[in-house]
Amino acid sequence: MSDFTFWDIVRNLLTGLQWTLALSLVAFIGGGLIGLLIMVMRISDKSLPRSFARTYIELFQGTPLLMQLFLVFFGVALAGLDISPWMAAAIALTLFTSAYLAEIWRGCVDSIPNGQWEASASLALNPLEQLRHVILPQALRIAVAPTVGFSVQVVKGTAVTSIIGFTELTKTGGMLANATFEPFMVYGLVALGYFLLCYPLSLSARYLERRLHASA
Fold first, then answer.
1. Residues of the chain where predicted confidence (pLDDT) is lower than 70
2. pTM of the predicted model, to two decimals?
3. Fewer Cβ neighbours under 10 Å: the N or C end of the chain?
């Protein structure tokens, strides 16, 4: 195992796990904010923002995350700007996340009966007020479970950022496997790390789905 003890490996992997968690949180929060804006544009009654939102969603859902990561990392560099692997990873994963969250939330909003829009319009509310005060509170109940479920995909998506040199859990595992010549043990611990992050999220999504369905 070279000069590394088992606990040296675990300690280094925990550092990589922290970066994976940090990137996941940045991508999910940033993607949520952008996704909310894209969702509002997607359900707009004006054709221009609706077309832009549809194109945005189809672009990021229709191309691999790895290609998006390369375009951000190398594209910005070609423009003469210096960008770190961390910043490129955060931007690419945020844009990727926003497209999926926008479509998830758009489906939840569309599931609300049209009568709710008509009733709120009769109260002289404009479309944004209808969305904020009447539609979104009802859609939130439906959106919680799939949103938490998608967070699992965000965590696993961070693994591809190792390609551009961002030292998260997968990249750390690769370096340790090369240094220790113990790839089975190292990658087993890497898999365990992802499991410890993702399994509680999966359980939460199932629990919320059952809880909200029962209360509905």
1. 1-2, 213-216
2. 0.90
3. C
